[in-house]
Amino acid sequence: MFTGIIEATGNVVKIEKNETNIDFTLSCPFTQELKIDQSLAHNGCCLTVVEINGNQYKVTAINETLEKTNLGHWSVGTEVNLERCLKFEGRLDGHVVQGHVDKTGIVEHIENLNGSYVITISYEESDEYTTVPQGSITLNGTSLTVAESGKNKFSVAIIPYTWEFTNMKHLKKGDVVNLEFDIIGKYVAKLLKKQYVI
């Protein structure tokens, strides 16, 4: 379980094909605090630490993960948003994030508002996922508030701190981003769909 509040960014230092899987080696500021089997969200995708070597660690993405996320677009040097799993002894600053990416979206537009930024994202049509204004959305692992919501499209406003502290500053039109929709909204959509079927 995560909150969507990014702790730090890391960098991909090695990519190795492992049958249908891909092993990613990354470095980050808190590598020394990690342990084998620990869950760590990478751009919002929960991966397990399988190896630690000095200031680098390794995670494995299976084929299903590669198909649902933007991890297959990574290259050596890619900056990745990182968050360790939630400790149940502090404040929940973001929202409930599972680390299970629902689908990817495409950056349609980025607007610089002289200090803040508005990013518009579109995603493939689906009756399972929706957004609402002032609702929660996770974009590359970052907990954000929906500013405007449309059909298979939404926008989020980014404050300067989030822009600089995460990998948001590297986004450009056409980029693929990981999306995790609000868990409560997903349950409501599922129940409504079930009700109409009955």
From TrEMBL:
Its EC number is 2.5.1.9. Lumazine-binding repeats lie at residues 1-95, 96-192. PROSITE patterns: LUMAZINE_BIND. Residues 1-95, 96-192 form the Lumazine-binding domain. It comes from the Bacteria. Transmembrane segments: none annotated. It catalyses: 2 6,7-dimethyl-8-(1-D-ribityl)lumazine + H(+) = 5-amino-6-(D-ribitylamino)uracil + riboflavin. It holds the Pfam family Lum_binding. GO terms for biological process: riboflavin biosynthetic process. One of its GO terms (molecular function) is riboflavin synthase activity. The keyword Cell membrane does not apply. Keywords: Repeat, Riboflavin biosynthesis, Transferase. Pathway: Cofactor biosynthesis; riboflavin biosynthesis; riboflavin from 2-hydroxy-3-oxobutyl phosphate and 5-amino-6-(D-ribitylamino)uracil: step 2/2. InterPro entries: ATP_synth_asu-like_sf (IPR023366), Lumazine-bd (IPR001783), Lumazine-bd_dom (IPR026017), Riboflavin_synthase-like_b-brl (IPR017938). Catalyzes the dismutation of two molecules of 6,7-dimethyl-8-ribityllumazine, resulting in the formation of riboflavin and 5-amino-6-(D-ribitylamino)uracil. NCBIfam families: PRK09289.1 (NF006767), ribE (TIGR00187). This is Riboflavin synthase. It comes from Epilithonimonas vandammei.
